[in-house]
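Tutorial handout. Part one gives the primary structure; part two gives the three-dimensional structure as tokens.
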Amino acid sequence: MFKYWSIKRYGSKLLPLLEKKYGCQAYYHHEHIKLIINKYRFNKEYVPLAYLLFVEPNRHEQLFKIEFPHLNIDQYKNEMLHYLTEKKYKGYLLTLASG
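Part two.
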């Protein structure tokens, strides 16, 4: 259950905090995302999820190679979507399916 609430928090709380601090943007710099995650004590295990949601998609591959070389972007994204579907989640995180 802790995993679900940690992931859900990324979908419901992170964007409003980013918008408050950096203004409304289509995408955010990964360093800004990390600052918010650290300041508000989000579970750091799901930083890749934040990057998928809020960093410009054409930067994902390069960013993941540097920060998460052990992760396959597509596999991680599919695992998150599968987990959310199992939990019958309805919310912002489902934007992963469209990207």
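Part three, for discussion. The chain has one domain: 2-98. Helices lie at 2-22, 30-39, 47-54, 60-67, 73-86.
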